[in-house]
């Protein structure tokens, strides 16, 4: 896989998120060759409510077996804007109950939130 290959399967096109391609990006986030590139890609979407919904869906879906995708989704949830996190507080708390620490969004947050 090359960066050019990832660009061809972009998860966001014409204002719509493609969940399957999003999962693909989340999986490739765990490969250090692409981690920074994928971080940069998502950096402009950290205020996107649709993305937040999909990330929480992935983290909280007990039937979904993709550990790498769930772990990366938890990471990107931690990067979402504070406004989104406040709005999604119940889901954030529920995600924190995951038995695997790497799938808990707050394990990636470096600051504390008084509103939690």
End-to-end Cα distance: 40 Å
* Helix-strand category: mainly alpha
Coarse shape: globular
Please tell me the overall pLDDT: 91
**Helical content (DSSP H or I, runs of 4+):** 55-70%
Question: Rg, please?
Answer: 14 Å
Tell me the count of domains: 1
Which residues sit in consecutive blocks of at least 5 with pLDDT less than 50?
A: none
The count of strands amounts to 2
Helix count from the secondary structure assignment: 7
Largest sheet: 2 strands, antiparallel
Widest sheet: strand ordering: 1-2
Helix-strand string: HEEHHHHHH
Strand content: under 5%
Helices and strands in order:
Layout: H1 3-8, E1 12-13, E2 16-17, H2 19-29, H3 35-43, H4 49-60, H5 67-79, H6 82-87, H7 89-95
Antiparallel strand pairs: 1-2
Helix pairs in contact: 2-3, 2-5, 4-5
Key terms for this structure?
116 residues; HEAT repeat domain-containing protein
How would you characterize this protein structure?
This protein is mainly alpha-helical. It has one domain. Helices cover 55% and strands 3% of the residues. It is built from 7 helices and 2 strands. Helix 2 packs across helix 5 (67-79). The N and C termini lie far apart (40 Å).
Short description:
This protein has 116 residues and is mainly alpha-helical.
